Amino acid sequence: MKKIILTLLAVLTLTACKDSNDEPANSTPSSGNITEAKALGESRQLTVAGSNAATAQNRIIYEMDLLSFTSQGTINAAQERLAELKSLGIDIVWLMPIHPRGDAKFATYPSPYAPKDYYAVWSKYGTLDDLKAFVSAAHQQGMQVWLDWVPNHTGTGAVWVTEHPEYYVWNGTEIKHPNDYSDVLQLAMKQTATQDAMIDAMKYWIDVADIDGYRCDYVSSAEIPADFWKRAIPELKKHKEGKNITIMGEADFAEQTRLYGCGFD
Q: What's the pTM value of the predicted model, to 2 decimals?
């Protein structure tokens, strides 16, 4: 049976306080209610009709944008609020993409979904050691940590553009921009070499940071064959002995039946 994931995005929006010394909200949700933490430490109870207690099949996820979660916008600052998330009943922290972002000419803060290096942490967030400490602290609180992963494309300034141009889809002398988005470049995910590189990068974070799963972006892309997922997901799930890895996927259309049976949770 597929796991049923209850994702609290709008309800559990922990907005950053203006003052970095502000104390986090300490309210504990009562039965049938969820505490919504507000700016400046204010909190109130919201009734959630028909809500059920968290189980192995019904877990509560918090999607975390590190830049906005705290006034500092860093992994270390976010770690200081993990106990607060635990008090709200969070089971899983889903980190939005942590990687360095693509070509900065497109925005002051380029899109997090334009990754530049799958093997690095964006310096604005902190370091690899900071991420390791964050995951360890979350585990001590009894929470999992998932990474948001972008398998369809990279940012225009990605290291693979120069190191492995063969990993991309080319239109003549230029790399294809998926859906005409100028800040990203289409990966050739139908090629075995590109698939190998993607799986290796995903295994890396399981090994070095002990993460617990992935939320994979735009898995319904026509450029990503279902056979990739049928291969990648079992490899990732069995990669680390004794480690249970969860793989979730974002599909833009419910009728993407070709993804059924690929192994997504």
A: 0.80
3-state SS, 72-87, equals CCCHHHHHCCHHHHHH
223 is a domain residue: yes
Q: What is the per-residue pLDDT across 67-120, written as a single tens digit (0 to 9) for each?
A: 999 999 999 999 999 999 999 999 999 999 999 998 767 666 789 999 999 999
> What CA–CA distance (Å, rounded) separates 14 from 38?
6
d(Cα 210, Cα 202) in Å, to the nearest integer?
11
Task: Find the domain containing 188 and state its range.
Answer: 60-259
Residue 14 lies in a domain: no
Q: What is the mean pLDDT of residues 157-162?
A: 96
Strand ranges for 101-241 from DSSP E: 144-149, 153-155, 170-171, 174-175, 184-186, 213-216
Non-local CB neighbours of 140 within 8 Å, separated by 6+ positions? none
Number of folded domains that form the chain: 1
H or E element, residue 47? strand 43-47
Which amino acid type is present at position 25?
A
* Cα gap 82→67, rounded to integer Å: 15
Q: Is residue 175 part of a domain?
A: yes
Q: List phi, psi (to 5°) of 9.
A: -105, -65
252: pLDDT confidence band, cut at 50, 70 and 90? Answer: confident
